[in-house]
Structure formats: structure tokens, C-alpha cells
Amino acid sequence: MDLLAMNLDDLIEHHRTLVAEGATDKALAEVEFRIMEAAPEDIPRNGHALLQWAATTLRQSQHVTARRRELWIAGPAADPLWARVDAGMPIGRTARVLRAARSRASRRNREAFRRAIEEELRKMDYRPAEVVTPTPILPTAGDAKDPFPSLPAPSLGAREFWQKLRQVLAEHMRPRLEFMPEHERDRLLDDFDRDVQAVCAQHSSKWQKSARGQQERQRVSRQHFTNALRVLHMDPPRRGAPLEPVLAQANKQKKTLARLYHPDSHGGSEHTRAQYQAVLDAFLVVEQYVSENKKPVTPSLRLVDGGKQ
To answer: Is the dihedral of CA 289, 259, 230, 243 positive or negative?
Structure first.
């Protein structure tokens, strides 16, 4: 069907037909792009106003309309993303992939841009893993003394762990959010995911401190303390100055820099992971130095009754 020969009303009716037939997002994106090209002249051609008009006319989410248009403009380089969307990846996630791909390659170089998209998809890996039912291990005659032999547990890296946890959380929460719009559901899942990571990071810090407390620790030198402060973008205090204000300021700097370097602040990319961990380690060094060099508080004496306390 020649979309260029159709007027605006025919395009809108064709779009509704495709929606009723369950057409792919790519097919809908092509029609929506032609509809926006044929928009009335009184509609401003800037992005927000045009998207708002198209979403209202087509009776669908402006968020979905914007993501489809963004993918369509990307051209053939976005074919891997269209394939993932058809396989079940929420279309709202495509913005993060495109944003990360643009930071690595120019859209003018289509081959490099396509490779960047494919690399980001490999990192994010939204395809659900196949569920394999483990075969039960039955004891044999030779295993009579040890009917349940210990098996080495598979180790997961940090990236694989959060992907697995995200998949489990999404499968658990999706039935409770099935009546919500897709972009709102994805936003809630993202918020929940960040909250879980924050809680785990908080407790991980406590576990690390507890583990170090069980071991014999070496005292932190003044040089290590100074280096840690520089990692936190702070100047070292003069010798003999109280350290409690330094610890309070270091805590503020840790929170600010952790938000700045956290991988979630960079589209899930791991290139700032080392800086994020360095900030956390630097704060622990400052905290240990302050606790080791905190001056004991001596109670003040008040003389009454002719010199007696």
C-alpha cells in the first residue's frame, strides 16, 4: 500500500486497522511518521507539539509515539532494536540504548551506529534466559555415606546478577501492573530496581565494615587519609583540627559523587564502575581514620564550695 498517496484521514484509518490487526511496532511507526508529515499546517513542527497532536489523534501514549518515531528516524541501523521490540522488549527501553549508542558512534556512519546498538543490546541482554529444570541427583551404592554430595554453585558476575534479579522482579511484579500503561509500568520497575540496588549497596557497605572489624586492621596513615579526601574532592584539614566535621562533609561528598558515577546514571554503562567503587572505598578510609584518631572527650570540672567539685 502506497502511504505517500494517502491523505491524512486515510492514514489515520489505516493506522487503526493495523492496531486492530496486531501489526508490528515498525509498521505502526511508518504510518505514524507519515501522519506527522501530513499534519495540519497550524500544528507547530517542533517535537513536543507534533508528538502531542499525533498521540491525541491516534489515541495512544505520547511516550510510545516518541519512541517509535525515534527508532524510525534512526533508519536501518535500528533493525536490531526493532527485532528486540518484536521479541518482547518494552519499547520504552529503546531510548536508553539509542542514547548510549550515540555516545559511541555517529548516526551518519550507519554501520558503526548499528554495531554500537548491537553492543549495547549485548550489554543489556533483555532476552529472557531459558528455564532449565535440573535433573535430580539420585544416590548410588557408592554414595551411601554421602547421599547429597556438595556441588559447586555457579558464580555470577555483578552484571549477570542484576540482570537475573531484574528478570525475577519483573516476572513477579508484572501481573500486578498489567492494567497500567507500558511506560508507567517500566518506570515503576526501574524505580523498584534502583531502590533494591541502593539497599543492597547500603548493606554491602555494612557487611564490608563488619568483616573488617573481625580481622586485624592496620591503622590508616595520614597520607592514605589525605589521598582518600582528594578522591572525595576535599582538601585535608590542618593537623590537630577536629575530624568530626571532616567526616560529615565526606559523607555528603560520597553521596553526591556516588550518584554521579553510578552506572545507572550513565544508561547502565560500566565505564564509571571503578570511579564509583573508588568513592565508596575512599569514604571508608576516611571513616576509619576518624574513628582511630578521634580525641577522647574529657569532662569539664566545675568548682564549687571553695574548690570542691
So the answer is: negative
What's at 168, amino acid-wise? V
Mean pLDDT, all residues of the chain: 77
| Residue 23 and residue 94 in one domain | yes
pTM beyond 0.70: the answer is: no
- pLDDT band at 247, cuts 50/70/90? very high
In terms of Cβ atoms closer than 10 Å to its own Cβ (0-12, 13-18, 19+), residue 141 is: exposed
Predicted pLDDT of residue 149 = 46
Residue 135 covered by a domain: no
Assess whether 224 and 285 both reside in one domain. yes
C-alpha cell at 101: 549508542
Query: In terms of domains, do 114 and 7 share one?
Result: yes
Residue span of the structural domain in which 195 resides: 158-217
Cβ neighbours, 10 Å, residue 272 = 14
Answer whether 283's CB lies under 8 Å from 232's CB.
Answer: yes
On whether both 84 and 71 belong to a single domain, the answer is yes
Supply the CATH number for residue 292's domain: 1.10.287
User: Is residue 130 a part of any domain in this protein?
Assistant: no
Domain count, the chain: 3
> How much is the CA Rg of the chain, to the nearest whole Å?
29
Per-residue confidence (pLDDT) for residue 281, from 0 to 100: 92
State the Cα–Cα distance between residues 244 and 221, nearest whole angstrom. Answer: 17
Q: Write down the H helix ranges in 75-109.
A: 79-86, 94-102
How far apart are alpha carbons 293 and 219 in whole angstroms?
10
Query: Alpha carbon 154 to chain centroid distance?
Result: 24
Cα(81)–Cα(101) distance, integer angstroms: 12
Widest Cα–Cα separation across the chain: 108
pLDDT of residue 155: 57
204 lies in the same domain as 233:
no
For residue 151, the tally of other CB atoms under 10 A from its CB is: 8
> How far, in Å, CA of 221 to CA of 136, rounded?
54
What is the number of other CB atoms lying within 10 angstroms of the CB of residue 252? Answer: 11
